[in-house]
Design a protein that fits this description.
The chain is mainly alpha-helical. It is built from 14 helices and no strands. It has helices at about 1-25, 25-35, 40-65, 75-90, 95-105, 110-145, 150-175, 175-190, 195-200, 205-225, 225-250, 260-275, 285-295, 300-325.
Length: about 325
């Protein structure tokens, strides 16, 4: 309960600062621009979000069905939406998977099986994230979608490097238990020396305990690589759909000075930065990144309005939908 209150407090403070710095220079201009939004086009951005989460749920479903063959797509979609809420209120999106495992137990999936399914899904997502990151970094050589701020550009590569290291660690732990666990435990122990890390998320012991599941999962992946490849493909579609949303939002504001490819590249960079910010929803840093990268194409109230709408759709609306799903989930102790 203490961690939940801290997470909400950090989120509230960060959100308040974001709104203040976004609106303080041109409050009336931004509000005026928001009133001019094309509602029909904006609705398309919401539909694309739901489609994006659908493909994420399909990935999750194929891994769960390996342990519970009668698990439905509807259940997987609801589980994914609930995960959006829990991830949104916890640092590094760390709260979704543990609670999803709890919900799967309620649906008749053993904890060991649901843990393995979530690990496989997480691995497929991490691979997809790296592949999309490589694609956007390479295609950026032609489109040059980078901020004028070199520090921000540096964070892109830092985010990419950290995600790559995480993926490599998962693979090492999964396929070489002795070496992987030894190396992982040293890294985790080093990271948790920082007080700011200990204040957020889970404990060092819980993370180390969770790593032990990876080896069993790795053995299963070796036997059925096709399912993992399918999961990666579904997550790639999920990410590209998610990265398309800013383009649609800019069109809803009447701005057509950015192409789909440029929008996808910029959003990919923003999300890479967001993955390394230890605040619920990466609030503050992710908005700043959005302004920096999309600021190459447009300035003023249109840019600020697009950022606010984008965050509403991809973060707050996704959390609201997930919260509603959680409230109507039968047999679950309410938060």
């Amino acid at each position: 309960m203490k961690n939940k209150k801290l997470n909400f407090l950090v989120l509230f403070v960060a959100l308040s600062l974001v709104l203040y710095f976004t609106l303080k220079d041109d409050f009336h201009g931004i509000i005026s621009k928001l009133k001019e939004v094309n509602g029909w086009i904006f609705i398309i951005s919401i539909i694309v979000l739901l489609i994006s989460l659908f493909f994420k749920s399909v990935s999750l479903k194929i891994f769960i069905k390996g342990y519970k063959p009668d698990y439905t797509g509807k259940s997987a979609y609801v589980l994914t939406l609930i995960g959006q809420f829990l991830n949104g209120i916890t640092p590094f999106q760390s709260g979704g998977q543990p609670f999803q495992i709890y919900l799967l137990k309620k649906d008749g999936v053993r904890i060991s099986d649901s843990t393995n399914a979530m690990i496989k899904d997480g691995l497929s997502y991490q691979i997809a994230l790296i592949l999309v990151g490589i694609f956007t970094l390479l295609i950026n050589l032609k489109f040059h979608v980078l901020s004028k701020n070199n520090y921000i550009n540096g964070l892109i590569f830092l985010g990419f490097a950290i995600n790559t290291i995480v993926l490599l660690m998962i693979l090492i732990v999964a396929f070489d238990k002795k070496t992987g666990l030894k190396l992982s435990n040293k890294i985790i122990h080093f990271v948790f020396k920082f007080k700011v890390i200990r204040k957020f998320g889970t404990s060092e012991e819980k993370i180390k305990e969770g790593l032990k599941h990876f080896y069993e999962t790795g053995s299963e992946i070796k036997k059925d690589k096709v399912v993992l490849i399918k999961g990666v493909i579904y997550n790639i579609i999920h990410l590209f759909s998610l990265y398309l949303i800013p383009f649609i939002i800019f069109r809803s504001l009447g701005f057509d000075g950015i192409s789909i490819i440029e929008s996808i590249i910029a959003t990919s960079f923003v999300m890479l930065i967001g993955n390394i910010i230890p605040i619920p929803g990466a609030t503050g840093g992710i908005e700043y990144g959005f302004v920096q990268f999309f600021g190459r194409f447009i300035q003023g109230p249109v840019l600020s309005s697009a950022m606010l709408l984008w965050r509403f759709v991809t973060y707050f609306l996704a959390m609201i939908i997930g919260f509603v799903c959680l409230m109507f989930k039968k047999g679950v102790k309410k938060l």
